[in-house]
Sequence to fold (720 residues):
Amino acid sequence: MFAVIHIPDFFLQAALRLEPELHSCPVALVEANLPKPVILQLTQAARDAGLSEGMTPTQALARCPVIAIKTRSVAQETAASEALLDCAFAFSPCIEATGPGLCTLDLKGFKDLCCDAMGKKILNRLLQLHLAGQVGVAENPLLALHAARFAHPFLLVENSGEFLRALPVESVEPSREMLSILKKWGIHTLGAFTALGQEALGERLGPEALALFEKATATATRPLKCVHRPETFEEAIDFEHEFETAQPLLFVLRRFIEQICLRLEMVYRVADELKLRLIFSDGPDYEHVFKIPAPTRQIDTLFRMLQTHLETLQTAHPIRGLHLSARPGRATPQQLGLFEAALRHPHQFYETLARLTALVGSDHVGTPAIEPTYRPDSFRMQPVPFVAMLSEQGSTQPHDRMQALQGLCLRRFRPPLPAQVECSDRHPVAIQSAQFNGRVSKANGPWLISGNWWEHPSWGREEWDIQMQDGNLYRLFQQGSDWFLDGVYD
Amino acid sequence: MQPITNIVQLRQLLAERFPALRQFSEQPSLKAASWPTGLAAIDHLLRGGLPKSAISELVSSQLSAGSALIVAALLRQTCQTNQWLGLVDGRDCFDPAPLDNTLLSRLLWVRCRETKQALKAADLLLRDGNLPLLVFDLRLNPAAELRRIPATTWYRLQRIVELASTTLLVLTPRPMVQGAQVRLSLQSRFTLEALMETEEELLSRLKIELVQRRSFAGQQEGHAWIAEAG
Fold:
């Protein structure tokens, strides 16, 4: 058995997926790329208002002033096609993308197949994806396609001959000339058409009639051209008007997240990574990847992640399009223990880090790592290791191997404070700087350190540990002829 | 409904009608928990460690008293207990150089440039509530900036930390944290010879005074408790 899912007025439905409330309003879809744009598809409310396909937008507005006119969006149609396939993959592994708004499912191997129940499930899933579909089930793909086109909204063909006989002759899509001839002959149904006989039709109307006869009898089956399960889940939109700020995008992004989460749910997966792409009217695209610390398909969690990022984003150009894709992954089970040190709310922590990054800058939040050099104050800031935070049950390095400190710790002045130093017998005896002044009571040094002599510029300096008369301990260094306070020992 | 004649009945009625209030009233047993610092001078004074879900203030009125050394010791303790330490560095003065990468891998370091920024960062991390210990270092921040912190800010942080299980330790140059449950004063003073001593020897010479300790009822206990380890 085969099932076909058919989305009537697919291009229009794809354009209205983000605004499902418009389905009950008069809306017309136009092809803007044509020299003379005409209406391609219409909602039922628009038809009731007297509009029809082929009209120009001006004619449509004259008949129905409240009509909303939408243009075709390739990005949205692609996203809707993918959503349709995701829905189909929830019911069968063998799926064919038959055409725009059409996909065929091979139901071979299903034991105790209950077509009615499955059809209802498919239709419900489609409605959640904001697509109104029709489902036909029959013994071969062509028959199932006929059934899907004439379903209300589900049709199971049990007696193929009886079903086909009642169909209008337009259902096999004859050419305009052929249809005209058949109408003149008084042939309106496939039953009347096939009653003429294959040989007679071939003799009188040629090869096209033979092909139509094959379609009208729908006895032949064919192998499906199966497509693979998608590796990412993507939603996209090209805006009709450009946006100056990122804030208005939040509404669209929320809808995107809802749809992506729904599609992930259908295949029993969670989002492992999100990729946001903003398309500007001019200039290169902006792309940002969100690594999700604990893969999830919670709408609020994912949305907050995007919202936090967009709140701090400043764009140089108006935004023309928006793409959001999610990489599916499997949920990682987490068992908290009595002595567990893992994060309790990893998503919240991720969001907090994003806010901190926005507050102080990306190079001022993280985990420091010492660089393999003797150059003073050499370290790099690393992103917080989420994987370790989530899964760590114990340190990998024994604690007794940790290096013990020698002496007091330094509180560094960043940048070092320039100082005027008075020396006696090449030893500092008094210091004057913007913050700290006084006489030196004791000084240890000089400690000569240098490095990177093989490259330009190399570095070198002369360090002193000094104790002031007020008891404070500082590190002082001389670089060239200049003196600096490096920090205070504390 | 019968009229309420005593406080016990009133409590029962409130507990029935507002279960959340009952949960709140049960919290002191949890709040009494403490976070052991591994420093004898502090753990002995505070009978176990820094209080959880509360603010502790460590006042270091003089430089070279060992406050940075205490931060390093706290980081070592968090590493040994497989936990994480958040450090909001009010003046970007923390020096990671003497610590090895194993210790540093347990540190979330937020390098701030001014007091206002540091307060916002501390607020965010406290609201997050994922980190068990947060050190808020304002020791080197200019006195003028610190004076501009309104008292309500500290009360706000206190309210936030009450709802989390985070331990907040604020390092300040003078007593300033309103609503701190514990206020410690660092009295030690090191000389140039201390730079040649080991961490263990220096920690054993820390002099810490318990200046103030609030009970949950808001009462202040006496002060002048001094711990001099070793």
